[in-house]
Design a protein that fits this description.
globular; alpha/beta; eight-stranded mixed β-sheet; Aminopeptidase; binds zinc ion; disordered N terminus
């Protein structure tokens, strides 16, 4: 925790720059030590990044749907009609977690998807929060607690789009955690399908620390960086997106949490590679 509470960056580092590597962990860039009582790292121009995502998506043949609210809009991208699994990917539901948007931009730009994969992508679920750099939307609602009895326009519009789609096989929700000591993930897999957690953590661990804590976010870990929460959505009133998906036909989900006290390029690359290895494992049938 002492690193979290420090206001001094690692010597030689600054937001957006990768700090010198400790000699005992040469592949792990150093922690920035910027976050205190919340995310204090790099900001992005979310609207510009979303425009880049839309432009690359058009270039690579994705279908786009939009839902306008006020002077913002939600963007839904899809690439369907293929014989393989259906994968759902989202980011930007918390506006102070920019790495997910960057990861989706880089993925759509580089187009590394297996040919057989069907994709539905929501690149920025909280446009107001992403504009202002706040976790919540402009009304102060945490959208990722709004999926059981939605109050927010954003979640209602998102659910309209989700409800128009056949169920997904796997969901990947991209997040960041400003308090964590490394990358970690939540796995929802009540039917015990072949797990993607091992391949994801092994791949990410080559470029970013995996959180070694035995408790993360108030929950016990099942292995380093892995939380399999024993929560029955029916008993929780404030569903996150992942619970709605689980209760509406998607039997297998991951919430991927990049450590936002590390440089943004490292976090975005960790999320990008996590999605990429999951997509390839799914297309290959593990
Ligand atoms: Zn989040």
């Amino acid at each position: 925790m002492s690193e979290i509470n420090s206001t001094e960056p690692v010597p030689g580092s600054a937001p957006g720059q990768i700090a010198p590597c400790p000699t005992d962990r040469p592949t792990h860039p150093g922690r920035l030590g910027l976050n205190r009582d919340g995310y204090r790292g790099e900001r992005i121009e979310a609207r510009r990044v979303v425009q880049e995502i839309r432009s690359w998506a058009r270039h690579h043949g994705f279908t786009e749907q939009t839902s306008v609210f006020g002077d913002h809009e939600l963007v839904f991208l899809s690439r369907l009609g293929r014989p393989g699994p259906r994968v759902y990917l989202s980011a930007g539901i918390h506006g102070d977690e920019p790495a997910g948007l960057i990861a989706i931009r880089d993925l759509i730009r580089d187009n590394p998807w297996p040919e057989t994969l069907n994709l539905g992508i929501c690149p920025c679920l909280n446009p107001q929060g992403c504009d202002s750099g706040t976790r919540e939307n402009a009304a102060g609602h945490d959208l990722n607690r709004d999926y059981r009895h939605p109050r927010s326009t954003e979640v209602r519009l998102h659910l309209e789009w989700l409800s128009s789609q056949p169920p997904w096989d796997v969901s990947l929700c991209l997040h960041e955690d400003w308090e964590s000591h490394g990358f970690y993930l939540y796995e929802l897999n009540p039917a015990s399908r072949p797990s993607l957690a091992g391949p994801i953590l092994e791949t990410v661990g080559a470029l970013c620390p995996i959180d070694p804590s035995s408790w993360i976010d108030g929950k016990p870990t099942n292995a380093p960086g892995l939380i399999r929460p024993e929560v029955d959505p029916r008993h929780r009133p404030d569903w996150p997106e992942s619970f709605w998906l689980l209760q509406n036909g998607c039997p297998h989900g991951y919430t991927l949490e990049a450590p936002s006290d590390w440089p943004l390029p490292v976090r975005a690359e960790a999320l990008r590679q996590a999605v990429q290895v999951a997509a390839h494992r799914l297309a290959l049938g593990f």
